[in-house]
Amino acid sequence: EAGVAQSPRYKIIEKRQSVAFWCNPISGHATLYWYQQILGQGPKLLIQFQNNGVVDDSQLPKDRFSAERLKGVDSTLKIQPAKLEDSAVYLCASSSRASNTEAFFGQGTRLTVV
Amino acid sequence: AQTVTQSQPEMSVQEAETVTLSCTYDTSESDYYLFWYKQPPSRQMILVIRQEAYKQQNATENRFSVNFQKAAKSFSLKISDSQLGDAAMYFCAYLGMIGNEKLTFGTGTRLTIIP
Fold first, then answer.
1. Is residue A57 pLDDT above 70, yes or no?
2. Inter-chain contact A107–B50, Cβ cutoff 8 Å?
3. What region, left, alpha or beta, does residue A40 occupy, with left being phi > 0 and alpha being psi -120 to 50 degrees?
4. Top-confidence residue, A97 or A58
């Protein structure tokens, strides 16, 4: 079974620039999560999709962050414009009832904003 | 809102010894899952062990076991016969089964194994 794929692995941008991250979840997983993990902290949920619908985006800074999940499969997370405090690892995870709720994680994208 | 608290930012243990990592959570739900995830320096989050709240029996996976105290809302992880490969960040996580089923993480415990 292929795992959760994320790209890119690393990204360095200047503040006020825009950036996009891509996630391909495990096939058949209805639930997709995007987390932000600042160095030394636990993952913070940014947005959760169930198929292609948003079920929780209460902690997503909507003035600069956006996310979509086309056709309930792949997802992209965008930041525009980026701030220094957006430097973090962005983790994508997917799960399903069939997987007994276990969330499978990608390797993450490390974003550095300079 | 559900919260997960890990009060030990760092722990260390001698190789082959036993260590216990603590986790408490707050919820008003009766049906939920609890998890321990391991995150090595490679960043990939890996599931260590899972506990279903309706099961009274504590989960066990080889050298890893939990002490689940539902009334106290406590969920600790015991690692027996610690190995060098166990060194990592360990995160406790909560998944509600009603409504949004949001997966919420604690702040993590960094475990160091002393050879």
1. yes
2. no
3. left
4. A58
